[in-house]
Amino acid sequence: MYTPSADQSLSEAYNLTKYRVGGNGFRSIGVLKAALEQVEDHMESDIYGTGKVIEQFQEKIAKFLGKETAVFFPSGTMAQQIALRVWCDELGTRKVAYHPLCHLEIHEQDGLKELHYIEPILLADKDRLITLNDVQNLKEDIACLLIELPQREIGGQLPEYSELAEISRHCRAKGIKLHLDGARLFEVLPYYQKTAAEICELFDSVYVSFYKGIGGIAGAILAGNETFTAESKIWKRRHGGDLISLYPYIISSEYYFNLRMGKMGEYYEGAKGLAEKFNHCYSIETRPIQPVSNMFHVMFDAPKEKVEHVLVEFYQETDVGITGNLREYTDTTCYCEISIGDQYAMIPDEVIEEAFTLLGRKMKELN
Amino acid sequence: MYTPSADQSLSEAYNLTKYRVGGNGFRSIGVLKAALEQVEDHMESDIYGTGKVIEQFQEKIAKFLGKETAVFFPSGTMAQQIALRVWCDELGTRKVAYHPLCHLEIHEQDGLKELHYIEPILLADKDRLITLNDVQNLKEDIACLLIELPQREIGGQLPEYSELAEISRHCRAKGIKLHLDGARLFEVLPYYQKTAAEICELFDSVYVSFYKGIGGIAGAILAGNETFTAESKIWKRRHGGDLISLYPYIISSEYYFNLRMGKMGEYYEGAKGLAEKFNHCYSIETRPIQPVSNMFHVMFDAPKEKVEHVLVEFYQETDVGITGNLREYTDTTCYCEISIGDQYAMIPDEVIEEAFTLLGRKMKELN
């Protein structure tokens, strides 16, 4: 059944498991092929942002988000820098505010600063959400506040809708544009019990991704009013994102949006159930304790190398994969990210139960 | 056989023709599907610029171009701005030089200036190539000179290889980096009777495209030494071009590169033959008179609306399409661009002969 090997790396051992608690499955070329199967060969490509395939999808998602217009982008990195730039130009200042662990701050090689000369004010501490109070205490004039729902780097936490609404009212009163980093917006709708449009109406502009919970190949939508999106298209060309053909991403985004949008509730319930199992294990706690989306972090109260060793053995013995990527949190703790997709429901209940009994025991033995 | 309609637009009439003198065929989704057919479903996606599918293709093209390393980009717009930026940073100046009709100057919404604050010096007149003399007379310190082979906006003209070699020697002596806009590099190899590597060794960095003569979906390669490409990857992320998956473009680029790289000679011969036929028509001249690649411009010595009317009738009567996009050149002249691909060879000789006899007659009647 498995080949125990003491020196197997975590990712190698993970890749050999039969079951995986997170994700929608292996990112293989088959994912694209499946999306293309139902499309006629003679269907026309989009051409530099025009054509039926791109325009129809943009309209569909604009409507879903309750916004006037939407633009398809190859990446969220591009879409969000541009969103902030457009608001900065409109308000005549190059300052914005966002969370210290915002994607733009830690994952984009400082594109916002290097390409747009925009200075971000970091709101809140690294390990908690931005609050209304943080926004009210902002001393500097900013063009735009970016809020990420859920705040990925702290396990996917969410403010209550009422606080979000107050932040939105405050920003509108102060003439601050509010931008939504909705990389995982679809994934939080079951918790809020709101439509996407009800969330998005609090924001002036919205970015959503199609390869997180949706599980597409790549691609993003930026939505807002007509002036905003028209301006964003000019910047899209400047960034080199106005490709002659974006249809491989558009067609797959739409295919997996249709396939998985209705399953966000199932993923959310799965995340809550799975987090509970982790929290029953010795020296393991999830962040947040009770997930508010399909994602959460698993915090191990033990050093990375030790947990890695436990997990490799655990994968070999149970055939259940938790993660291929464990990250150091402090010298004596580590963590990983879990996002529930289609794969969780495929694991038989008894396999999960046995596995978590074993994981609890192994973690206890560590101490 | 056809439905004559006086008020049919040029592009509508063109789209109804059975034969087309230019191009590789309709840009439909079938183009991608054909490229994917030979790929196994379980083949792994690239992940943020890593993985077999992207690394192998980058190595293959680096070798083909005779460069140390290569990076796959979603677009040439992104690749070339970044190439110039990397050279500017290395040389400590934000000045470059290129042709007045360079892609960066006229098709990119000034991304180079708006995102990189790079000031281009425009060399040569709009209607001719950059010469060694132009480069020698450059008064300002520049980081990089960009040369486009062939110079698309003037019909795809080329300097002789010996002049190119002298420009390269001059730049090296002066410490100026030389960048090749090789959007159509593959298409000029038959004229030069050189390998791509023999052309590229004159340049410090090279961009090539996979959807011009190659006929892929989209995508570009930027090649150069290791320091250069490593730096370009950082900027690729900043621009939002470091997508989680670029494989739809990579697989199709490789598929059509393998399919059409060997046909560039056939396209070049086709272009020469077709240009000759145009040049036999009254009031029509190609630019250049004898093509040096698969492309040329057709210059009509009559106002755009009149030529449009002639072409619509011509398409309806012959079923042969020349262009769907006629552009004004002066008030009394107009032109279109022709790039020979697979479609030209599919037109029976007698259809072409009859068609051009008719075109000559129609153009004569105009005057």
TrEMBL record, chains A, B:
The Aromatic amino acid beta-eliminating lyase/threonine aldolase domain, residue ranges? 42-298
Recorded hits in InterPro entries, A to Z, give: ArAA_b-elim_lyase/Thr_aldolase, PyrdxlP-dep_Trfase, PyrdxlP-dep_Trfase_major, PyrdxlP-dep_Trfase_small
Keyword hit for Amino-acid biosynthesis: no
Q: Is Iron a UniProt keyword of this protein?
A: no
A GO CC term attached to the entry: cytosol
Q: Pfam family of this protein, just one?
A: Beta_elim_lyase
What are the GO MF terms of this UniProt record? L-allo-threonine aldolase activity
Q: Which UniProt keywords apply?
A: Pyridoxal phosphate
Required co-factor(s) are:
pyridoxal 5'-phosphate
What Gene Ontology terms for biological process does this UniProt record contain? glycine biosynthetic process; L-threonine catabolic process
The family classification in the record reads:
Belongs to the threonine aldolase family.
UniProt name for this protein: Threonine aldolase
Give the organism the record lists. Fontibacillus solani
